[in-house]
Amino acid sequence: MTGDGDDGDLHDILGRALAALSAAATPAEVDAVRARYLGRGDGELTLLRRRIGSIADPDARRQLGISVNEAWRRLEDDVVARRAALERQRRVAAEADEALDLTWPPPPLRRGHLHPVTRMSREIRRVFTQLGYLVVSGPEVEYDRYNFTLVNMPPGHPARDTQDTFYIDAARLLRTQTSPVQVRAMLALGVPLRVIVPGKVFRRDNDPTHSPVFHQVEGLLVDEGVTVGDLKGTLEYLARSIFGPERAIRLRPHHFPYTEPSLEVDVSCMVCGGDGCRTCRHSGWIEVLGSGMVHPRVLSNAGVDPGRYTGFAFGFGIERAAQLAYGIDDVRLLYENDVRLVRQG
Ligand SMILES: [Zn+2]
């Protein structure tokens, strides 16, 4: 065996070892490369190093010894470096897989909105409390007497026929209107008085334009010298506060048992501004409220002297007001629990 042959072997071994090392994809593969070339018993470079002592020529022996030692160190260094690099890669991958990244932004919070009926109800309260009205409530399970008789609809009164009522027994029912609270408020608080009564009312209706439960608000003002002019001013203020400052109102004679005179109130159309459109059936006006001067019999039923006091009352549906103010076409949307309605804001 000549020195040149051993040099060629060394060159070949080192080349293969370095190539295998850079192809190693895991620390275990690096360890296998190390064992194959530098292994204590039969590593290829180990075997070559053992042969150095048998070279006869001292110069060639020394030269090969130096070359093999350099190759050995080079290979050792590369094994350590390659192993460290692969360990680092594995650690980074594991962290990406398993660790919580606390700097990652959270999904955006979805902001809730008030239901249109709640929003309108609050708006109405705000408008009237600014005018000095008290917000009062009454029972939803009501006596027939308060719901009908005391608001001037005694048994047999024709207006009772128009009310589809949920009766509980002969004396009690689910209130069909908030008007009974007029009488309750006058009895409880006395006069002069100004109250609004927002609340649920119940009718035996269930079709595309009627829900068996809906919300009404009732307003009542009783004092000395109250006139239709006061009523008109209050309703104008209400219409402009809720439907916009451009709104006008129009009063039309009507009939309700508990007011005399009774007036239906139209508001100029909030969609077309009065020019005529589908919403207002091309009339420019939309019927929104019922109102009138409190019937003297209702006052005396509530213990108020109709010779000294007069008052006005008005009432309207909160769903309808919300539909008109917020442009909601179908009243059923308000009860179908589709959260898209409130997400719109
Ligand atoms: Zn219109």
Which features characterize this protein?
345 residues, alpha+beta, BirA Bifunctional Protein, domain 2, 2 domains, two-stranded antiparallel ribbon, rod-shaped, binds zinc ion
Kindly describe this structure.
This protein has 345 residues and is of the alpha+beta class. It folds into two domains: 3-98, no CATH class; 116-343, Bira Bifunctional Protein, Domain 2 (BirA Bifunctional Protein, domain 2, 2-Layer Sandwich), CATH 3.30.930. Helix content is 43%, strand content 18%. It has twelve helices and nine strands. It has helices spanning 3-23, 27-38, 44-51, 58-98, 116-130, 144-147, 158-161, 180-189, 228-243, 296-301, 318-326, 340-343; strands at 134-135, 141-143, 172-174, 193-202, 213-223, 249-254, 259-268, 285-294, 310-317. The chain has a seven-stranded mixed β-sheet, sandwiched between helices. A two-stranded antiparallel ribbon has the order 2-3. Helix 1 (3-23) packs antiparallel against helix 2 (27-38). The termini are far apart. The model has no long low-confidence stretch (mean pLDDT 89). Bound molecules: zinc ion (ZN). Zinc ion binds at residues 269, 271-272, 276-277, 279-280.
